[in-house]
Specification:
Radius of gyration: 20 Å
Strand order of the largest sheet: 1-2
Largest sheet: 2 strands, antiparallel
Strand content: over 45%
Mean pLDDT: 94
Order of helices and strands: EEEEH
């Protein structure tokens, strides 16, 4: 199974993690410089839940934001 929510199609996102070096200006330094950029993935918080989907009970992956919003009818 993939890492995608069944209801809202939320999937992995991408971003960067910056590594900085040097003291920031407001603390008396010359300013912080970016010395490295690393690609990273941001995964959705998926839970295996028994839900009623199209009249039948299925176990599927649903994100927690859909569960909290009440979009899920639990079996």
């Amino acid at each position: 199974m993939s890492k995608i929510c069944v209801l809202c199609d939320k999937g992995p996102g991408t971003g960067k993690k910056y590594r900085r070096r040097g003291m920031i200006k407001r603390k008396g330094g010359a300013g912080s410089k970016i010395v490295g950029k690393t690609l990273r993935k941001v995964m959705p918080n998926l839970q295996n839940v028994k839900i009623v989907l199209n009249g039948s009970v299925k176990r599927s992956k649903v994100c927690t934001s859909c569960i909290r919003a009440g979009k899920v009818v639990k079996a």
